[in-house]
Amino acid sequence: QGTRDHPPAQVALRDRLLSAVVSCFKRHGAAAIDTPVLELREMLIGKYGEGTKLIYELQDQGGELLALRYDLTVPFARYLAMNKITKMKRYHVAKVYRRDSPATARGRYREFYQCDFDIAGQFDPMIPDAECLKIVHEILSDLQLGDFVIKVNDRRILNGVFAVCGVPESKFIPACITVDKLDKMPWEEVRSEMVGEKGLSPEAADRIGEYVQLHGGLELIERLLQDPKLSQNKLAKEGLGDMKLLFEYLTLFGITGKISFDLSLARGLDYYTGVIFEAVLLQQENEHVEEPVSVGSVAGGGRYDGLVGMFDPKGRKVPCVGVSIGIERIFSILERRLEASGEKLRTTETQVLVATPQKHLLAARLKLISELWDAGIKAEMLYRKDPKLLKQLQYCENTGIPLAAIVGEQELADGVVKLRDVATREEVRM
Amino acid sequence: QGTRDHPPAQVALRDRLLSAVVSCFKRHGAAAIDTPVLELREMLIGKYGEGTKLIYELQDQGGELLALRYDLTVPFARYLAMNKITKMKRYHVAKVYRRDSPATARGRYREFYQCDFDIAGQFDPMIPDAECLKIVHEILSDLQLGDFVIKVNDRRILNGVFAVCGVPESKFIPACITVDKLDKMPWEEVRSEMVGEKGLSPEAADRIGEYVQLHGGLELIERLLQDPKLSQNKLAKEGLGDMKLLFEYLTLFGITGKISFDLSLARGLDYYTGVIFEAVLLQQENEHVEEPVSVGSVAGGGRYDGLVGMFDPKGRKVPCVGVSIGIERIFSILERRLEASGEKLRTTETQVLVATPQKHLLAARLKLISELWDAGIKAEMLYRKDPKLLKQLQYCENTGIPLAAIVGEQELADGVVKLRDVATREEVRM
Lengths: 430, 430
Description:
Two copies of one chain form a homodimer.
Chain A: H1 8-27, E1 31-32, E2 38-40, H2 41-44, E3 66-68, H3 73-82, E4 88-97, E5 111-120, H4 127-142, E6 148-154, H5 155-164, H6 172-179, H7 187-195, H8 202-212, E7 215-216, H9 218-225, H10 234-252, E8 259-262, E9 275-282, E10 294-303, H11 307-311, E11 320-325, H12 327-341, E12 352-355, H13 362-374, E13 379-380, H14 389-399, E14 403-406, H15 409-414, E15 418-421, E16 427-429
Parallel strand pairs in A: 1-4, 6-8, 12-13, 12-14
Antiparallel strand pairs in A: 2-3, 4-5, 5-11, 6-9, 7-8, 9-10, 10-11, 14-15, 15-16
């Protein structure tokens, strides 16, 4: 349930997409690592908030309690801690597993690809964070997915907001998870979840509402830095200071046009500690609608400075920031677009079909195709002793093979091969 | 237990190896499919003989009993049956899982890659089978792994041997599994396992011994076709006839020099029905040893005409033949060779480091690197506001970045960039 086979046409499209993403990661100097699909269960527990119940657990393997990885971030943090690595820029493209209620029509599966880029290490503030946002901008631009916006916020600013609104610290994470739903529910519902389920006071909720509905750019950051309450909060001040620096760097990268400082962005995961961000595509069909409507998140990430320390026996921290590209949703978009265009993606790369026009020439085909393979040429033949020439040429047309190398009795006698362009029917003897 | 993380140097080497294998598969016109790492448990049961006990099972997912895939062949057969596909040439490179006792020093893991190429469809005999052997020959030659031999046999010949030696049909598969151990144990031990554990009569075992210790080429096939007992057995005769045809095709491919018709080859899996084969590397260190010693199997496969039918509700059969490349063992060999050569594999592809020789030039670096990225150039910079030039150049040397693009105050004033060749220290202003 919630998984799927990928036929060749899907794999071909997915490979094209993944290679665009990986190219970008390599352009930014990342190295690849690989980790097992299995992790010790205890490594995954307590890292994902409400997601923990979606972890796939295996049967006891003689005392080893294993689970399928839930994302690529926790395995990366474990890898850094186990190998005592304090500095690394890595990417990882692999499948992850979530025992979620699948919504396959909307591209939500229980097994799906993640494409992660992360920078680990103690560096000057906001330089790696800015690069992560640049990467999202490059990938979404390269793939020509239409207009998008990258929402940015900072967990420290959110926590500062909660603090000055009178929320006790023990309720920061539940409040965060509720705020994160603002992109799917109106404020009234978010507010009632805060007061009802999460037990915040109605006054606190109202005060939070005044902040988390704000979004803008540098001018909003400046305004909040002057906010009488927020400016008194150490965490919020730090977060806002860094946000200002981030916007300076993004201005140098020339990408602030697509960036929105959005106080409603919270992200569901427990492990974020600083900057968080999420990219959403904007619907363009309904251009009469005043505000562009988001069609869902296609990338997200943030800073998690405490996660590596959770895996280190001495609790040594390695600050990290990273981004995950939501390849499955992008894949669905590209697939629909390909269907609409009527373009047929080739699923093989065969350059030439080795064919014979008469019977009893299997040996000639086998000899020729073997020479072609040995010369590195992508070649096929039909697995029949005596196939009809028409059938052989039809196979070329059906699978997009551009050339046919034909050896008949005459060609054999003359020591030549007839090379036929399948589309134009032009032939040369060579 | 029995799994491992792959650091960047290993991923770089593995990607190089996988790309050689995939190139070969594409050269032969195969398309890629992808299937979930999870299969319904019932799909895997009864397909692997003694291997069944090594299947990784998951906890009950609300009535779904799942397991991790054990190989890529059974998922391929299920895919064909579910989609009613009767003809396909596909490759699949992915990880599989076996709860085996790990022997990591010898390259045996519980999670490992398989690289499979299979041809499904009703075709003229031995043409696809010959192509599978050609593929093994090409890959092992391309990778320059040293001398190798590809052992070939046919389950029908083996079954014929068992029949004429007086083994009851119910004991064919157990007898097969025991014969398969002849590459690791002497005949005496194999014989005693047959008589002891498998309950064959001593006379039957002795008669089997006379056959299964034979190996050779076309002349052996001819001799066995004349064998008074075997030639009376329908199955054996069919198998020997096809084996002769196979050798004719392999002669046209020019690869019989590396092929050995070996009656001891049995292969452990239940699902094979015809030709089976296995490639082993030959040890070259001890050249005084008379017979070359095998250092283990690096590829294997065979024909399985009944497997797809097991997944089809109406039992419709799709004949298949395929090969699996033992990438992990080959990887270990290449890794040892790389270590011995002292060659250092780069783990990133960065072309240029953007550097500054003075303080307060972070903005210049951010602007330049952003231009380079947008132009598709692989570029890095240090995540420091004011790094020392020496540190920046050392980073190039440590990671193999060939060029440094330097912007200092003078370059900024002149509107140029100084491009430095890290190895030769030559500089040009541009």
